[in-house]
Each structure stands twice: as structure tokens, then as C-alpha cells.
Amino acid sequence: xxxxxxxxxxxxxxxxxxxxxxxxxxxxxxxxxxxxxxxxxxxxxxxxxxxxxxxxxxxxxxxxxxxxxxxxxxxxxxxxxxxxxxxxxxxxxxxxxxxxxxxxxxxxxxxxxxxxxxxxxxxxxxxxxxxxxxxxxxxxxxxxxxxxxxxxxxxxxxxxxxxxxxxxxxxxxxxxxxxxxxxxxxxxxxx
Length: 191
Prior knowledge:
Elements (H helix, E strand, L loop, with lengths): L1 H19 L6 H8 L5 H5 L3 H27 L4 H16 L3 H16 L1 H24 L5 H20 L10 H16 L2
Helix pairs in contact: 1-2, 1-4, 1-6, 4-5, 4-7, 5-9, 6-7, 7-8, 8-9
């Protein structure tokens, strides 16, 4: 039961981050949002730093889950399948995963002032880039590590632009995102 409670608290903390911002993230706010008795969050995560770290760990775990779903779709060395998988991922991140990514940006800003969080964020980001590089290597891409860094950065930029950037009000259009994904795939797989 404990791992489930920890995950519930971490996911609820991400929800609080997305809806109330970093300043609104308190143990009490998470208890209330999760419908838990007062003091539950502080029992599992004694400090705010521990709670923020749990949020980052959960974000990375969710990113790995996304890659687990996506990886079988791109291992066939088929650029169209890869583009389609990337477009589907972007649509999911901009719709049902929207809150998660807004919370991620709140954590990015918090990490600017907290080296301990920045280190966790960096490790998580590098792990994801390594996994993407492994996929690109399996597709026969030259210099997969460098291409993975740029592909992940480009995806981050698209999500940022569409959630909180200049195009935040733009509708989520899978056809448009597929064209973008095709261009990113072409760049990632070009000789």
C-alpha cells in the first residue's frame, strides 16, 4: 500500500503544481487535493524538497512509460511510423497530459534556484535522452546521442510553445503536429 500512497501523493503534488503553481505546493494543499487526512503528505515526504523530488521522480517515471509505449512503434526503421508515434505523443502531452507538463515547467523554474532539484532534473533528462539515443541507434542513425539531445529539445520546445508560450491558445491539430513530427524524424534520421 505504501508505494501506491507515495505515487498518489506525487501525482497529486504535480496536479497542485499545475493548478496552483510552485508557491501553492504545500503538504496541506496536497493532502486536501488527494483527499487524505491532514499530515499524510508530510508523513511520506517530510520536507518540501522531498516532495519536489518525488514530483520529479514521478515525471521521469511517466516519461519512461511514454517511451515504453512508443518504442515498439519506431523500431521498424519506418520514418512514417516514427512520425505518427511522435505526433500521437505530442497530442497526448498537449491534451490529456497537459497538467503534467505544466507541472514540469513549474519544476524547471523551481530548479533554477535549487541546485538539488536541478541535479535530479538533469539526471532524469539525461536518462530519457539515453533511451531516445538507443532507439535512434537501433534505427541506424549516425551520432544517435547528439540527435537524441536535439530531438528531445525540439519536442520540449513544441510542448512549451503550445502550453505556455506564444501559441498556447492554438488548437491541438494532429495533422499539423504530424507535419512537424515528419520534419523532426527526417532530421533525426538524415545521413
